[in-house]
Amino acid sequence: MNSRSNKFMQTQALLQPLSALPDWGIGGSLLLVEQQLQQDFRDIDLVCTEVLAPALDALLLRLATPLQTTPHPQYCSQFFRRYQHPSGLVIELMAGIAVRQSSGALQHWQFDPLTVQRRHGLPWMTLHDWLVLYQLFERPEKVTLINAALTSL
To answer: What's the pTM value of the predicted model, to 2 decimals?
Structure first.
């Protein structure tokens, strides 16, 4: 078994204590690895409802150390926190996602927990949700990658 699959399995085990909570999902580059669209991930992106954010934050604080974040002029989510797990993995928790566009307008994206799919005992967001988010985050390489995967289905 290679180190990438070990990292993926380690991440699944790290997230298992959260699995009983409702209204959250795994996305970002970890979703792309799970869907075999890329080889590795740099962090663990978790998205949840604004209502669940305090409870999920409290649980993550028992598993990992919070990292200092500075406000970003473009990303204006209602809730955002980064954590460092003792394994070295970084977790990002987001809720109430909003991005300031170049026009100055704030564009909101609403997480819908009903679209989450359970695989490997964990809740995974859809590629379509992350297509929209990567467009919002202005990540054209990820948009192209997901578009290609969705058109080949």
So the answer is: 0.94
